[in-house]
């Protein structure tokens, strides 16, 4: 559903223009039943070239490593066997979404299905394929993390693979494409003025920064959601909801309510990336003392109450 929201007017035409042929997708392809099984068997046998294997959703290893919680209908074989055999043939293996990358929501709590990602089990390397797995291209699994993942991240990754422009240094330490993972959700956030002055929202619908009280992890989450808005204009923070860091392993179990910022001594536990605690405390105190009245008032309102002053910007 996310992929179909790609900004391109025609997803299939965009892929075709980039030299990407979609062999099969369970929701987007007409082929089904025995035809699909034959296609998969041809890929495994080498009769059909398989350049990119994309897997959506966590893989289920249970019960007891048998994989029988998730069978491919009509084959009598668990999906983990099919994925392993196809991955061994693929030039590139791509995990689409945080569940396929790290286990995600499916692997939360006591995890009765023994769900995991393709090459990670949470933030630990391993997963179904193992930490040492490399595809035919020599690359590890490419983790397009996100819950859901941004359609542009998927399309741009596939096009980059088609053009041979993905190398080991194109991926970050968790295997995520750096073109989006080298950013933070905080970058480009429309609430950044409130963040700078530590003018915080106190309840849902407030315009202020949601980091201090409302659980926002935009200063820690690796993604460019506010630099390339969804559908041209949307993002979680633009919609008034805190970033829950869905591109990170373990986001599904933060240890506290998603819309609440845990604190120790009044200081948020989840400080911005690379921000030492002492610096944050000092800067926060200074920022709050310098907060303009306009920003302070608007932070706890659901609409602009005080607009910016009009001043001449040209010196004569």
Task: Describe the SSE topology.
Blueprint (H helix, E strand, L loop, with lengths): L10 H7 L16 H12 L6 E5 L2 E2 L10 E2 L4 E2 H11 L2 E5 L1 H5 L12 E2 L3 E2 L2 E2 L16 E3 L6 H12 L15 H4 L10 H5 L66 E2 L2 E2 L8 H13 L3 H7 L17
Parallel strand pairs: 1-5, 5-9
Antiparallel strand pairs: 2-6, 3-4, 7-8, 10-11
Helix pairs in contact: 2-3
Account of the 3D structure:
By secondary structure, this protein is an alpha/beta fold. It contains 9 helices and 11 strands. The protein folds into 2 domains: 3-179, 3-Layer(aba) Sandwich (Rossmann fold); 183-316, Cytochrome-c3 hydrogenase, C-terminal domain (Cytochrome-c3 Hydrogenase, Chain A, domain 2, Irregular), CATH 4.10.480.10. 24% of the residues lie in helices and 9% in strands. Strand 3 and strand 4 (77-78) form a beta hairpin. Helix 2 (34-45) packs across helix 3. The model has no long low-confidence stretch (mean pLDDT 94).
How far is it from the N-terminal to the C-terminal residue, by CA? 55 Å
Q: How many structural units, i.e. domains? A: 2
Structural class: alpha/beta
Would you identify the regions where 5 or more consecutive residues have pLDDT less than 50?
Answer: none
Separate helix tally? 9
Q: CATH superfamily membership of the largest domain, which one?
A: NADH:ubiquinone oxidoreductase-like, 20kDa subunit
Residue share in helix: 10-25%
- In which order are the strands of the major sheet placed? 1-5-9
């Amino acid at each position: 559903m996310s992929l179909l929201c790609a900004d391109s007017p025609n997803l299939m035409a965009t892929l075709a223009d980039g030299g990407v042929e979609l062999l099969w997708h369970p929701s987007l392809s007409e082929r089904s039943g025995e035809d699909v099984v034959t296609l998969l068997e041809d890929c495994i046998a080498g009769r059909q070239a398989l350049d990119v294997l994309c897997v959506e959703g966590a893989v289920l290893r249970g019960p007891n490593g048998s994989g029988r919680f998730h069978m491919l209908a009509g084959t009598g074989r668990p999906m983990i066997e099919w994925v392993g055999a196809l991955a061994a043939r693929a030039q590139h293996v791509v995990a689409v979404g945080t569940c396929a990358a790290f286990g995600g929501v499916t692997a939360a709590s006591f995890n009765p299905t023994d769900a995991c990602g393709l090459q990670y089990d949470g933030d630990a390397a391993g997963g179904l394929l193992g930490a040492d797995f490399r595809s035919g291209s020599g690359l590890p699994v490419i983790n397009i993390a996100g819950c859901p993942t941004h359609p542009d991240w998927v399309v741009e990754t596939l096009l980059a693979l088609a053009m041979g422009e993905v190398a080991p240094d194109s991926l970050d330490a968790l295997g995520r494409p750096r073109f989006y993972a080298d950013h933070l959700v905080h970058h480009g956030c429309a609430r950044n003025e409130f963040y700078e002055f530590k003018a915080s929202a106190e309840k849902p619908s407030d315009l202020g920064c949601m980091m201090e009280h409302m659980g926002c992890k935009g200063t820690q989450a690796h993604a460019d959601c506010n630099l390339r808005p969804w559908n041209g204009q949307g993002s979680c923070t633009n919609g008034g909801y805190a970033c829950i860091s869905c591109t990170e392993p373990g986001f599904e179990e933060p240890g506290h309510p998603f819309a609440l910022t845990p604190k120790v001594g009044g200081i948020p536990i989840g400080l911005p990336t690379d921000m030492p605690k002492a610096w944050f405390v000092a800067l926060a105190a200074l920022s709050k003392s310098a907060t303009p009245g306009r920003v302070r008032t608007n932070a706890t309102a659901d609409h602009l109450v005080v607009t910016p002053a009009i001043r001449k910007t040209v010196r004569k």
